[in-house]
């Protein structure tokens, strides 16, 4: 997970896309639901990097679920 956060901080969007499952479900701290790598990356481009998630799930080495910590 630390690797994902550092990739986001470096704004390495190509690498992030390779770390996300094609069906990733990402919930932001303001409870916005994003589906798929493109939606996640579009959102992260405009926001500060997230903190460590409240919950995340990895399957086959790819992030399938991410829930930002509230606040």
Q: CATH architecture, please? A: Roll
Q: Biggest sheet, strands in spatial order?
A: 2-1-4-3
Counting helices, strands and paired strands, the structural category is: alpha+beta
Helix content: 25-40%
Describe the sheet with the most strands: 4 strands, mixed
Radius of gyration, whole Å: 11 Å
Instruction: Give the low-confidence spans.
Output: none
Structurally, the number of domains stands at 1
Q: State the total count of DSSP E strands.
A: 4
β-strand percent reads 25-35%
Helix tally? 3
- On the 0 to 100 scale, the average pLDDT is 94
CATH topology: Nuclear Transport Factor 2, Chain: A
- The succession of helices and strands, N to C, reads HHEEHEE
CATH class: Alpha Beta
Overall geometric form? globular
